[in-house]
Structure formats: C-alpha cells, structure tokens
Amino acid sequence: MIPELEPEDFVSFLGDLWGERGWDTTVQERANGTYFIIGERGDGRRGVLFVFPTTESHVSGQHLRRFVTLCGKKGVDVAVVATQGAYADEARKIADAKGIHLLDRSTLEGTVEEGGFHDVLREYTGGGPLDPILAKLRALGLPVPETLPVELPFDPAKMQARVRSKLGGYSDGSDDSDADGPPPDDEGDGGGRLDALPVSPRTLLPVVVAAVLLVVAGSAMGALTVPGIGGGGSGSDTAVSAVSTAGANAALDIRWNAKTTDSITVNGTAYDAPENQTFVVVRMNVTSLSDSPEQLSQKQLALEVAGDRYGHQPLRNTTGFPAGGLFAPGETREVWTVFAVPADAESGTLLVRSGEDVPGVRFTRDTSVSAEATEL
What we know:
about 375 residues; alpha/beta; endonuclease; Restrct_endonuc_IV_Mrr; nuclease; 4-stranded mixed sheet; DNA binding; about 30% strand
C-alpha cells in the first residue's frame, strides 16, 4: 500500500500518474473538498477521475450514482474514482455494474508496480532512486545495503523538461436538484471551480545499475503583472480588489498587493501558468490582532473572477504560507499565494471563504508591499 499523502499531493500524484499514461490533464477543485481530474487524449478519448483526497473520505453509493449521471451527460469514455479513504459496499456494487474503476492506496500500489511509476510516487514520498530495485533484491534474500552510492554521469539540470498542463472548464453544477450536481452531503459555497495543480516537470535520468531509473528534477519559472501595480510578464493585466470580513474588530489585519504574469520564479525554480491561463500573485503582510493564535490557510482564500471562484495554485516544493497557516498573537508575517485564472480576466476579487473557523479579516491595499513569490 502506498503511504498516506497530503490531500493536495494525492490529487497531484494522480494527475501525474494519468499524465504518464498519455492523458493531458486539468484539475478542478469542488467546493466540498473533492476534485475532478479531467483527461483528454490525442485520439479524442475523454476521462474523468473523481477524487476524494482525504483518509477520512467515505465514498457513498449516492456519490457514485451522481458521478455515473455526470459522465453520461458529458460523454466520458473513462470514469475513475479515487480515494485515500473508504468505499461503501453500495458504491462498489454500482461501480461494478457501471464499469467505474475504483482506486485506493492499495490498488494504486499495484498500478505503480505494473506501470513502473515508482519515480512518480517517489516525487511525493521521497526516497532514493534505487529504492524499488533494492527492495526487490532484499525480497530475494540478497544482502543488499540500505543505500547505494550513485554517481550520475551528467548534469541533471541540463536535461530538465517541462510538462505543461492545459486548464479548462468542466462544471459539475451547483444545484443539488441537478443530477450532475454535488451530492447532498456537499457543503458548497458556490465557488471552488478550477484550481490548476502545479506543472509537473521531471527529468528522466538513466542510471546504469541493472535498470533505467527515473529521477525527479525541478523546473524553472518567471514573474507577474496587474494594472497600476507593476510587475512584468506577457499575460493580460487583471485588476484585483479584496473584500474584508471585519473592520475594527478584525482578528487579522492584512496589507496586501498583487500582480499578474505568465510565469513566476521561486528560489531559482520556474513555474509556467497553464495554457490560456495567467497567474495572479498576491503578497500579504499579515498581523494578528488577536490574543490567541489565529489560522488563515491558503485553502480559505479564493479569487473570484466573473462569478467563478478559483482556489490557490499549489507549487511543488515551495509554499508562501506558514505550516497550518497559524499566526501567533501579535505576530506580523509576510506571506504570499498564487492563483491561476483565465488569461482574458479583466478583474478579480480576493476573498476569504466562509466557515466557522475563519477569522475576521481586514484587507488594506498597500502598494509598498512587493507582490513577489519568494522563498520563506
């Protein structure tokens, strides 16, 4: 069984796995914390992977029935459901009857083994490039050490290859009365339409130790712009505003600035915006005004464009937020986040998603804040 992954890593891992199988993928986050990974192939086939990313997820028969209806309406050729949690017996029966393939961490282990996708999994779990081979040798009873020295005969940086992901719309409906809408237990806020997961660049590194191994390599990235806010890049400018949820009684005071761009660079690693999309980088100087710790995570933020809400775009191996989004009493900290929105977006509104645990936030535009994504 593959190890438990963070929910966002699990989604990204599945997207990469489909990419290795020849699918051009797009990721859509839904308001209830589930995801659709939309796949297209050169032969015209279309697939949808319905993802329940947490270990607490319980995939019900109702989930499967609505997914079957959605796939029928959209003309989906390949329908898959994946979770780190569990499937109800009814869900498994429906999947068997309707030809829906179910994935969990156990079956995904078999997929990795059969397809030789250890490099894809290793990108999210760590470990050395020889681990799968060493494990098999140990299983044969051979006295293999825990690690082996590996010296690559070339510079991996010179062999970097970017894998670009196209982001497009694939609405699942927002009315529970619609058969292809979210299941009854969803608690949507009307948003969470499309989130681009990070582009997954990796380098194939041949290592001669009884096999050809795949080793993950990083990728590179550029910068963003917004009218009147400065910045650079070739993306269209998007005017950004923000909506406060509190005034004088705010728990968090946030002075912020933003800009748009086609690419950003963080600590020498570059990330490109998906095709037909542009990045909006928002940098915030957050001050906690509370007497107790406050939490504001990237998942609680959204950028609303033309009525659709876009969650933050995860960037592999880097983040602009502290762990857990925790801010100590009286603490002031600079953080940043990135959104991927349509390239032709003229304006967007930064907001905090509603919820019981969301602190009162007061946003104040401050052009002295440099809207850059930097290593924290």
